[in-house]
Structures are given as C-alpha cells and as structure tokens.
Design a protein that fits this description.
The chain contains 14 helices and 14 strands. By secondary structure, the chain is of the alpha/beta class. The chain folds into 2 domains: 125 residues, Alpha-Beta Complex (Aspartate Aminotransferase, domain 1), CATH 3.90.1150.10; 242 residues, Aspartate Aminotransferase, domain 2 (3-Layer(aba) Sandwich), CATH 3.40.640.10. Helix 5 packs parallel to helix 6, helix 11 runs antiparallel to helix 14 and helix 13 packs antiparallel against helix 14. The relative contact order is 0.17.
Amino acid sequence: MKRIRLFTPGPCAVPEEVLLEMARPFHHHRTDWFKGMLKDATAKLQQVLMTKYDVLTITGSGTAAAEGAIVGLHPPGSKLLNIEGGKFGQRWGEIAQQFGIEVVRHEIEWGTAIDPSWIADALKKDPAITSVMVVHSETSTATRCDLEAIGKVCKQAGKFLLADCITSAGALPLRPDDWGVDVVITGSQKSLMLPPGLGFVALSPKAVAAIESNKSQHAYYLNLNKARKSALEFDTPFTPAHLLVRGLAKALDLLLEEGIEKVWKRVAAMAAATRAAGEAIGLPVFSKSPSDSVTALTPPAGITVKDIRNALEQRFGIESAGGQDRLKGKILRIGHMGAIDEMDTVLAVAALEQALYKLGHKLQLGAGVTAAQKVLAERL
C-alpha cells in the first residue's frame, strides 16, 4: 500500500495528533473558548520562536503576514533595502513596489548568501535607508544567510530588520531578541506542522511603535494595528481560521515537548545526512550556503528532475519539489520540516537511490544510505 510521504518544502507533513485535534467539535470563534485557545497558542509561539516580542496570528499564508509587516512598517519617507537571492526575496521587493514604497532591490547570485559586510557598507553609503529585509532560509534555493550577523549590522546602524523566517522558524536556530531582528515572519505549513492558512508576525517594541505611528499607509485586512489591538484581548479583527489555531496549540506542544533546541539539532542532522547522501551518489549540493530546512541537489546528466520526482512519487509516494523560475529543471529539493524524523530521511535516501538506479544512473546502491546513516549516528 503506497502512502503519501511529504518531503516538500511546504506544505509539510502534519502529525496525526494535530489532525485529530482539528477534527473535534468546535465552538464559535467570538467566544472565551477561542480567546483562551489563542492566548495559549501565542504563549507557546513565543517559546518556539525564542522571543518575548508580541506575536500576531494572521489568517492567511506567510505572504499575508509579510505583506502586512512590509506595508505597516513603511510610511511615506521610508526606504527599504531588500536582499533578493531567490523567488521569495523577489516577492518582498515586488510587494514593496506595488504599495509605492521606495525600495532598493539588491539581487545576489541564487544559491549564495548575502555578506553582512555588504549590508553594512550599503547602509553607510545610503543613510536614507530605514530598513533591511532578508530571507533567513530562501526556500527556492535551499540557502541560509547569517541572520545573527545581519542583525548586528542593522542594530549598529539603527535600522529596522525584517526577516522572512518562513522556512527557518522551528527548524533553524533563531533568537530574534538577542540578534536584533525587529520583525520575524513565518507560516503554519512548514516547521510548525500545520496545514496552510496561518501567518505569524513577531514584532519588537521598536517595530510596534513604528507601526502604531504610521497613520498614512496600511493594508485593510492585513492591518497590523488592527491585528495588534485585537490581540491585546486575544482576539482577531476578522474571522480567524480557528480550527488551525486549535491545531497550532497541539503542534506547538509537540515541538516544546521535544525541546526546540533539540528540534534544531534533529533538523540539522537530517539535512547534513541528505547532503552527504547526495554527494555520495553523484547529486552535488546546489547551495553554497545550505539551509537545514530544505536541501537542493543537482541531478545527474541525462536524467531530468521531473523523471526523478515522478519515480519517487509513483513508486514510493514520496513528494519532493523541483526548482522555480530560473532553477526550474535544475535542482531537486527535499524538505526536512514537519512531522518527519531521521529514519524518514533514511527512507527517502533509499528511495532516491532506487529511483536513480531504475532511471539508469550509475551508482553503488547503498552508498547514499551509508553516508546518511554515518552522519546521523555521529550527530544524534
């Protein structure tokens, strides 16, 4: 019997306990029942995100949360420096432009990470820049940046730092309060182990003050002032996806039970094992600064990414992802987020070996599994 096995970089596998929790009978959302649930989930979100910042829950995806933050934090006269090293970095620049925000869109080579010293120099050269936005883990290229170092640079320069942490929160080390990250954006369908439908924004006190003072430019539905006003009473300004909030509280329980730092360690081990396996069977790692939440491998000559993905899905039920935009057909992406563990990773590597073998790739069967097992044995 073929099972569905999600190794995509989102949506990711949801634990059975969370699915069952969301299937239980429910109350109306304008009740103390929902307010208590949102209060509980918010406190747990702060623990998972390692922050004391205000955390807002938005009904929508991570993009919705990002749009609300970008628009709310940039009144007329603001200037955003947006770092673009993939499809998601590009998206934030497009949103800023669409809302008429002055934005410097700086593109870097896909698969590389921005050098924090470049940001420091850019801020010195252009004092008019008021904020910087980076993608902590660029999902489209499986690349991570040094968010801690970038935070230090922005803090020293007195600039706001907005971070897309959609595929880093809950998977990679993240300490926004200590690092000087003013806005942390994430979504439900990645490492938080939920279906799509919720976005989250953590705001530093400095960011809250700036958003509250912005009287001229806000989205309507994604208005963070409205969201924060309601959140003070553990409510939402518009109809919430309240069953997802119910599932969120359960999913966060599971992460906190394991321990968020242990989760980071497990994800890092699974990613390192997958990278080692890829190199062992002739699929080089694409990124020069690999993220741990998702791995991008380069397919062997003569075998297409589409054929590999089809073989994985049709024979083993494993759903992976290909590249986007200029990387379409050039990389195979395997996720390490959601309800998967190290033995799931070994399974995926074994399936990848068999798929490649059937497609005519010359490899020593078991080489990838051996490499992955060695990494896991050493790191966990």
